[in-house]
């Protein structure tokens, strides 16, 4: 291997590397977009969950805090008196 071919190889690498970097950048961009999409989905499901939870909670609290048969307050879903 003489100096000329070595420099040619180096030149070839200098051409490949930016190309690879660009590809890597594209990959990172795509990955970021996927992550962003997932984050949106997670946030959406969290919001949906939260909305469902806050919608259900007042009813739940009413049912849980008071027994429907003896009207006694109960800390657990199962009534201790009935
Ligand atoms: Zn009861």
TrEMBL record:
<protein>
    <submittedName>
        <fullName>Uncharacterized protein</fullName>
    </submittedName>
</protein>
């Amino acid at each position: 291997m003489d100096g000329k071919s070595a420099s040619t190889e180096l030149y070839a690498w200098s051409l490949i590397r930016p190309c690879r970097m660009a590809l890597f950048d594209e990959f990172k961009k795509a990955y970021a977009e996927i992550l962003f999409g997932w984050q949106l989905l997670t946030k959406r499901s969290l919001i949906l969950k939260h909305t469902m939870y806050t919608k259900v909670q007042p009813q739940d609290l009413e049912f849980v805090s008071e027994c429907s048969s003896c009207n006694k307050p109960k800390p657990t879903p199962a009534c201790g008196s009935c």
